[in-house]
Amino acid sequence: MVGAIRRLGALVINGVWQLGFMARFFWLILVYSGQSFTRIHLTVRELYFSGVMSLLIILVSGLFVGLVLGLQGYETLQRYGASDSLGTLVALSLVRELGPVVAGLLFASRAGSAVTAEIGLMKVTEQLKAMDMMAVSPIARVVAPRFWGGVVSMPLLAALFSAMGVFGGWLIGVVVIGVDDGAFWAQMQDAVDFQYDVLNGVIKSCVFGVAVALIAVFEGYDCVPTAEGVSRAITRTVVSSALAILALDFVMTSFMFRG
Questions:
Q1: Torsion angle defined by CA atoms of residues 151, 156, 159 and 161, in that order, rounded to the nearest 10 degrees
Q2: For 52, 138, 149, 180, which has the most beta carbons within 10 A of its beta carbon?
Q3: Is the model's pTM score more than 0.70?
Q4: What is the pLDDT along the chain (259 residues), one digit of tens a residue?
Q5: CA 175, 166, 203 angle in degrees (round to 5)?
Q6: E strands, the chain, in order
Q7: Residues 6 or more apart from 204 whose CB is under 8 A from it?
Q8: How far apart are CA 154 and CA 136, in angstroms?
Q9: Residue 218 in contact with residue 25, Cβ under 8 Å?
Q10: How far is CA 251 from CA 97, 204, 207, 210, 258, in A?
Q11: CA torsion sign, 45 to 122 to 115 to 36?
């Protein structure tokens, strides 16, 4: 019993220490971001690495999510004689919820894990220590560009995911099943509000981008400098990012859409 309490206390203390260290790490990223932006090509390169290189999986996944959503939505709406509202169902589901959340999970799995591995390998090969010895801040040179690359990429990828999902819903609903094309788009335009639906979805994706990018760079920077340590850091990045996205989604949804 005493041993279990000690282990529980050690876990709590370690968790609090990790949160404090992450908060300090986030503050240092913001402080050194000015130096990072003076070398804008570093951030642009990370935008390409995190955003453009994730584009294929985002577009393909968005298309298939839209296809499945359109097919399932049509089967449900047809029971109540509301099949013309398929566009509304697809658009609201993607813009409010599925777009930011699923895109965030995919982004964490692909770009987040890659950033963690890259920084972790730089720590294993002592490149970060070499930068310190040359009076070059590794946070300004390595961490901040990757952080901002992820923060900027995430909302753009979520928007593309939602757009591709709407196209998939139109494809299966209008072209394949035969829902009226005009009713599909007209009811979607009438039901989707820019401020209440689209803007809230953008805010969600921005928050998810900050969370995933911070977790990815932190886990890479804080990992044990061994092959096993890097692999564990990658696993923690994916798991922690997924949990953070789902928890933040619940909190933000409860405030945004409770009215």
A1: -90
A2: 149
A3: yes
A4: 777 788 888 788 887 888 888 888 889 888 888 877 788 888 888 889 888 888 999 999 999 999 999 888 888 888 887 777 888 888 888 998 889 999 999 999 999 999 999 999 988 888 888 888 887 888 888 899 999 999 999 999 999 999 999 999 999 988 888 888 888 888 888 888 888 888 888 999 999 999 999 999 999 988 888 888 899 999 999 999 999 999 999 999 888 766 5
A5: 175
A6: none
A7: 100, 101, 158, 248, 249, 252, 256
A8: 28
A9: yes
A10: 13, 10, 11, 16, 11
A11: negative
Tokens of 59: 């577009």
Q: Which residue matches tokens 């799995």?
A: 109
Contact 205, 107 (CB under 8 A): no
Q: What is the DSSP letter of 134?
A: T
| Total structural domains within the chain | 1
**Integer Cα distance of 10 and 181 in angstroms:** 60
Given a contact cutoff of 8 angstroms between Cβ atoms, the answer to whether 137 and 237 are in contact is no
| Angstrom distance (rounded) from CA 199 to CA 100 | 11
Of 259, 250, 54, the C-alpha closest to 158 is 54
Q: Assess contact for 213 and 111: CB atoms under 8 A.
A: no
Tokens of 191: 């039901």
Full residue range of the structural domain in which residue 212 is found: 2-256
Instruction: Please provide residue 248's backbone torsions phi and psi, each rounded to the nearest 5 degrees.
Output: -65, -35
CB 224 within 8 A of CB 126: no
- DSSP-based three-state secondary structure for 178: coil
Tell me the one-letter amino acid at 119.
I
